[in-house]
């Protein structure tokens, strides 16, 4: 584990795939096996199939939104530790410290990653906090959905 802030690596979205995905993901969902002509610049979406089991600590130069559908995992966002359980959603913002580990064998979920500029055409950066308050670097970084609003 890095001992100083300067030792924690920062990853841009275009250099992050090898950090969080196995080479042979085993899933055709999302960007695992995407035709390059269908790729949306600055955005990626995946299921947890093919996810590398332990990641971080690291910083990402992009946003991350994830939901755990089944199983559990431990996640650290900033200096806070969370236990993801079914229906747990988490949110990270660019340059926030992120780490995950202790993923149970039955864990499954989805996550999307997107750069700051991804929403610029529809939502100016100055309006992001007002429209999506969970995408700012303060407050609780996770939430657990009610069973009836998050059925699969």
What does this entry look like structurally?
With 152 residues, the protein is mainly beta. The chain contains two helices and ten strands, in the order E-H-E-E-E-E-E-E-E-E-H-E. The protein has helices spanning 17-20, 128-131, and strands spanning 10-11, 43-47, 55-60, 63-70, 73-77, 80-84, 88-92, 97-101, 108-114, 142-144. The strands form two sheets. Strands 1-3-8-5-6 form a five-stranded mixed sheet, with no helix packed on it. Strands 2-9-4-7-10 form a five-stranded antiparallel sheet, with no helix packed on it. The longest helix is centred in the first third of the chain and has 4 residues, at 17-20. It starts with 9 loop residues before the first strand and ends in an 8-residue tail after the last strand. 19% of the residues are buried. The model has no long low-confidence stretch (mean pLDDT 82).
State the shape: globular
Quaternary structure type: single chain
Q: What series of H and E elements makes up the topology?
A: EHEEEEEEEEHE
Helicity, in percent?
under 10%
The low-confidence runs, each spanning 5 or more residues with pLDDT under 50, are: none
Q: Spatial order of the strands in the main sheet? A: 1-3-8-5-6
Q: How confident overall, as mean pLDDT?
A: 82
Using only C-alpha atoms, the radius of gyration works out to 15 Å
What does this entry show, briefly?
The chain is mostly beta strands. It is built from 2 helices and 10 strands, in the order E-H-E-E-E-E-E-E-E-E-H-E.
């Amino acid at each position: 584990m890095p001992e100083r802030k300067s030792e924690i690596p920062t990853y841009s979205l275009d250099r992050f795939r090898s950090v969080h995905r196995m080479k042979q993901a085993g899933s055709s969902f999302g960007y695992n096996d995407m035709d390059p002509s269908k790729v949306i610049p600055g955005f990626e979406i995946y299921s947890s199939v093919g996810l590398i089991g332990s990641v971080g600590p690291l910083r990402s130069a992009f946003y991350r939104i994830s939901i755990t559908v089944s199983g559990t995992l431990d996640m650290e966002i900033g200096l806070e530790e969370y236990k993801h359980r079914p229906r747990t959603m988490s949110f990270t913002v660019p340059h926030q410290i992120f780490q995950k580990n202790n993923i149970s064998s039955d864990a499954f979920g989805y996550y999307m990653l997107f750069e700051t500029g991804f929403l610029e055409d529809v939502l100016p950066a100055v309006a992001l906090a007002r429209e999506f308050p969970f995408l700012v670097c303060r407050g609780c970084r996770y939430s657990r959905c009610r069973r009836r609003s998050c059925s699969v």
